Every structure is written in C-alpha cells, then in structure tokens.
Amino acid sequence: MAGHAYDSHCPFCRIVRGEIPSSKVLETDDALAFLDINPVNPGHVLLVPKSHHLNLTELPDATAAQLGSLVPRLCRAVQAATQADGFHLIVNNGRAAGQTVDHSHWHIIPRFSNDSVHWPWPHSQYSGDQLSQIQLRIERELNSPPGDG
Ligand code: AMP
Ligand code: ZN
Questions:
Q1: Rounded distance between C-alpha atoms, residue 49 and residue 24, angstroms
Q2: How far apart, in whole angstroms, are the C-alpha atoms of residue 149 and residue 147?
Q3: 122 C-alpha to ligand 1 centroid (Å)
Q4: Which residues line the pocket of ligand 1, CB cutoff 6 A?
Q5: Architecture of domain 11-123
Q6: How far apart are CA 86 and CA 119, in angstroms?
Q7: Using one digit for the tens of pLDDT, what is the confidence trace for 45-77?
Q8: What's this model's pTM, rounded to 2 decimal places?
Q9: What residues contact 53, with CB distance under 8 A and at least 6 apart?
Q10: CA–CA separation, 42 and 78 (whole Å)
Q11: Please, what is the Cα angle at 106 between 66 and 133, to 5 degrees?
Q12: Annotated catalytic residue within 103, 105, 107, 118
C-alpha cells in the first residue's frame, strides 16, 4: 500500500488505509471497491484508485486503465449478486455534477425494473450550428498538445 498519494482529510484515502471502516468487495494493488454507505439501491459499489486524485480529469491514464479493466468483472458481480435488471456506471465530476467526495470514484448502481429511481434525465436539442461548433471545439481540444492554452 506504500507509495499511494494520501490526503488525511479525504474519507476515501482513509478507507484505503483502513483508518475508517468500509465494506470492501475487491482490492488490487492500485484500486479498491467497497459498498456505498448510502446506496441508491442495495449493492451500490464505489470503485476508487488507492492514490488520491481529485477527480476523473486528474487521473493518470495508467490509473484510469487499471480501474477500467476491473469494471466489467465488478459490474457482472454486482448484477449477479443483486439480481439487478441493469445498472449504471456513473462518475459525478465537479460540484455542478454532484461530486461530494474529492477523491475520484466510479459508481456502480444496480437498477431494478420496479425501483423508484428517477431516470432518465431530461434531454434537449441542438439549435443552428451549435452541434457542429461543439464538435469542432472538442476535436480542437483533443488535438492540441497537453498544457497548450
Ligand atoms: P459523489 O456524490 O459522486 O461524490 O459520491 C460520493 C459517495 O460516497 C456518496 O454516494 C456517499 O454515499 C459515499 N460515501 C461517503 N462517505 C462514505 C464512506 N465512508 N463509506 C462509503 N461510502 C461513502
Ligand atoms: Zn483521497
């Protein structure tokens, strides 16, 4: 466990170190998955890197790849164990998106045909050339060198 970036004020860092309890379901050298203490539905799991990273955009590619490689197996286990009809894989990134714990984490939330979760969220429509403008801007960002602008 040595060598992982640690923030003593961060609840998930403290869970990784065993300083506060958690209900772990999977642990690797670099990642931990445990039950969310206030689940949307029973079996709601959080997957976190052991190192402290504020949010998804700050994750090194290698760390994201390690977490991502665990997702299908974890989701299969959650779905089978809960007999869920489906599930969400969700990242809340930033306060505007509902992030409350500043240690990057991925939610796996089992869903049941008859549960009371409000979904889907509202969809809108593009107007004028808004769609192509946004497409262009995202492409430019992806093609600009890191640290540029
Ligand atoms: P988010 O709103 O995306 O930042 O999600 C944070 C999640 O962490 C919430 O769903 C909380 O219920 C969960 N949570 C906070 N503290 C703990 C804890 N000590 N153990 C397990 N889950 C926690
Ligand atoms: Zn942390």
A1: 13
A2: 6
A3: 24
A4: 11, 20, 22, 36-38, 46, 92, 98-101
A5: 2-Layer Sandwich (3.30)
A6: 13
A7: 999 999 999 999 999 999 999 999 999 999 999
A8: 0.94
A9: 5, 59, 60, 63, 103, 104
A10: 10
A11: 95
A12: 105
Active site residue 105: yes
- Tokens 């409350």 label which residue? 100
Which one of the ligands is nearest to 54 CA?
2
Using only the alpha carbons of the chain, give its radius of gyration: 18
What backbone torsions phi and psi does residue 108 show, to the nearest 5 degrees? -115, 115
Distance 104 CA to ligand 2 centre (A): 8
Q: In what order do the strands lie in the sheet with 106-111?
A: 24-27, 31-35, 45-49, 106-111, 86-90
Ligand nearest, relative to CA of residue 21: 1
Residues 120/126/132/137 CA torsion (nearest 10 deg): -60
Q: Give the model's confidence band at 145: pLDDT under 50 very low, under 70 low, under 90 confident, else very high.
A: confident
pLDDT tier at 2, thresholds 50, 70, 90: low
CB 6 within 8 A of CB 17: yes
Distance of CA 135 from the midpoint of ligand 2 (Å): 34
